[in-house]
Amino acid sequence: MLDAGCGTGENALHVASLGLSVLGVDVAETALAIAREKVDDRGIEVEFAAADAFQLERLGRRFETVLDCGLFHTFDRDERRGYVASLASVTEHDGTLYVLCFSDGGPDTGPHPISQEELRAAFTPGDGWNVVAIEPDRIQTRYHDDGAPAWLATIKRI
Description:
It is built from four helices and seven strands, in the order E-H-E-H-E-E-H-E-H-E-E. The protein is of the alpha/beta class.
């Protein structure tokens, strides 16, 4: 599994604790250093690497499962096309991408909230994607006691 924009590695570590092979990538070396310390402290096998989300093909690997927890919504409309193409370059055909992003639904949204329409527009069949589901969810943040409104999208590579 690929954890794109893994930050300090909590999601990658959780998935690896379930016995799955995980590569967590992020552009922030400071976050990756913290993630690697967690690996040492917890004794869980996870690989972390510095990578640009717009150039994931440079990893030279493909994944059946890709996780984006909190990265998609950081990109503006013009950047999303390049990011989605980068994701396509590392996602196996019939692979699954899970995107958890701030939503525009409800009060007290997080920064850069995304609409369902924006998610669907970014992941189109013409670009090799099929949006299977978009469900309401919450993202835990330091600033939201009960989490911020989010979308959890399940997207298949076709």
